[in-house]
TrEMBL record, chains A, B:
Superkingdom of the source species: Bacteria
Protein name in UniProt: Alpha/beta fold hydrolase
Any matching Pfam family: Abhydrolase_1
Key words of the record: Hydrolase
Cross-referenced Gene3D superfamilies: alpha/beta hydrolase
Residues at the active site: S129 (nucleophile), D285, H314
SUPFAM superfamilies linked: alpha/beta-Hydrolases
A GO MF term: hydrolase activity
Domain AB hydrolase-1: 63-302
Length: 343, 343
């Protein structure tokens, strides 16, 4: 696990009006920023992901090659490394942590990119899942900066069904009395976390993934072994419940139409995107279905929709299936070979 | 709500070896059995459904017309009306209620049909969801009796993904400490029931159903109103948690291959079906996807697959959407006009 650097945000005021005093972004970088600062890529994290969880898509010979690009991976506010319920002192700590919008996430990242590095143009923003949501937000918040975007397995606006899926995730966690409205003590609500994991398990991969027992390729020896070993293990791995709920709120309320100036008009926000866009949803993604992205792409000038084929569902973008990784990497290479939308 | 009749099963021994002493089936009938007892239809219930929940598919001018057919609706063991955790005296009460297989359900129903009514041939068995599972089981358990089957939105074997969906449902309910391993008191684990309802909400209808806000057609005024008014209301409406878990176990373990004589060979069990078969999965059913049923139908001699089109997902078979109801009713009419498999 690569160590992270810290960018001090100072007093960070959220879109909803709270001020996190002494806030920070944890981030890391790969490669070197070139002299004219034209080779920057921003690659935000996903729901509960940390910067090291993005490394599968970075490497020599890949689209995100540190020999050629300066790749910045900022950790989301709420993920436990950047300012989060778990590391904020009172009074904004724990269950009192304020709501963070996707707009806020990108506002913080924009400060890192401009103040820390003096970058004025970004060659590419890309990301998986909530990272895709932040990718769309970058293109809308800073159309003058972002040359290309490649969201994969995500959306510019969280759909109603996606919100319902997340309601189930949230309800399972908070049904555990130990959660205590977010004021749990040193004993975490592990029953609730395990329940959340089991709810999530049905959504993360497709029906066909389970039918074909693809989890065996990941080293799991039975369905129950996958549920315990992968899913419960995933959410018991230091993932603070309040952090999970903070990020969940961000996800549920994701909508580029809520960017100041758009008055909730998602279609207008999509129409404002100037970046060259390659959108890659996964064929059997159960909460970011490709139909939704066909709608989004139809509203972004010149955008391309390229569906990741196969049965891994949402986790096509998780880096665990070599076929899907190659598909995404190929898409990114082809996008980077195209002129940026600001050219 | 129509009253029910009671059939005494006496000592009912389950497939797993428990004996429920003084067990009973609650059931109701529509229409009259004709002189040669050739007009019987069996229409089992679904997960938490009661006999009155099946009435939407029964009526004058419909396929299931009481003027022509004698329609028997047996309540599933575990549904709260037939023998269930909630109405069984100690020692097999509540959390100690034994596991009931789909095979057991049909064994009990077979006794009702033969002992109470002296019926030797059944013109049709049909049912939604778990009712579809019982429909398949009838054709495998009693090939000499069943002339036609029309399972809709169900399967002959619960798929691995479907089991995972149900794990999430179960985990949400049991995360509530009030559940207390099934030994809750007069205070029910309503937080867990509401959590279960929210988990279920994402699965019952399709992504597109929510995108199109089809719930407004059911009289719900917002997404949250649908989650509370329909879903939480559904599971808080007298649905005993232990009953829900008993039926959930039956569902998770559904497999016609577990019928005695088939040694777990689901394909052989499908191949043994002699009834004329019309299988109607729903296009966007998230836990009984049509691909799975294409597989099942390919193994049943002469069976027809007819996919219910549209965006209501699993609830296409719930009787709430007139278009889907008409599609199913038309299918049943056409099936009843065909020769039975035993002709």
């Amino acid at each position: 696990m690569r160590d992270h650097l810290t960018f001090q945000l100072g007093d960070f005021t959220t879109q909803h009006g709270a001020t996190l005093r002494g806030a920070h972004l944890a981030y890391t970088t790969y490669g070197e920023l070139n002299a004219d600062k034209s080779n920057a890529i921003v690659y935000p994290t996903w729901y509960s992901g940390r910067h090291w969880d993005n490394e599968w898509l970075i490497g020599p010979g890949m689209a995100l090659d540190p020999e050629h690009y300066f790749i910045i991976v900022p950790n989301m506010l709420g993920n436990g490394l950047s300012t989060s319920p778990s590391n904020t002192p009172p009074p904004y700590d724990r269950a009192r942590f304020p709501h963070i919008t996707v707009y806020d996430q990108v506002a913080a990242q924009h400060r890192l990119v401009t103040e820390q590095f003096g970058i004025e143009r970004i060659a590419l923003v890309t990301g998986w899942s909530m990272g895709a949501g932040q990718t769309y937000q970058w293109a809308v918040s800073h159309p003058e900066m972002v040359e290309r975007i490649a969201p994969f397995c995500g959306s510019p606006r969280t759909s109603l069904h996606n919100k319902v899926f997340l309601e189930g995730v949230k309800a399972a966690l908070t049904a555990d009395g130990t959660f205590n409205g977010g004021w749990y003590g040193e004993t975490w609500p592990t029953t609730g976390l395990r329940a959340l994991a089991r709810v999530y398990a049905g959504w993360g991969f497709s029906q066909a993934f389970y039918w074909e027992k693809e989890y065996e390729k990941l080293g799991y020896t039975s369905l129950e072994d996958f549920l315990v070993g992968f899913w419960e293990g995933f959410f018991l791995d230091g993932r603070d419940p309040n952090n999970l709920l903070t990020m969940l709120w961000t996800w549920q309320n994701g909508d580029i139409g809520l960017t100041p100036g758009f008055n909730g008009d998602t279609e207008a926000a999509l129409g404002s995107i100037r970046a060259t866009t390659l959108d890659m949803p996964a064929e059997k993604d159960l909460y970011f279905p490709p139909e939704d992205e066909a709608w989004a792409v139809s509203l972004i000038p010149g955008a391309e929709l390229r569906v990741i084929p196969g049965i891994w569902g949402h986790f096509a973008g998780h880096g665990s299936n070599p076929t899907d990784t190659e598909f995404i990497d190929t898409g990114l290479k082809q996008l980077l070979a195209k002129p940026g939308g600001l050219a």
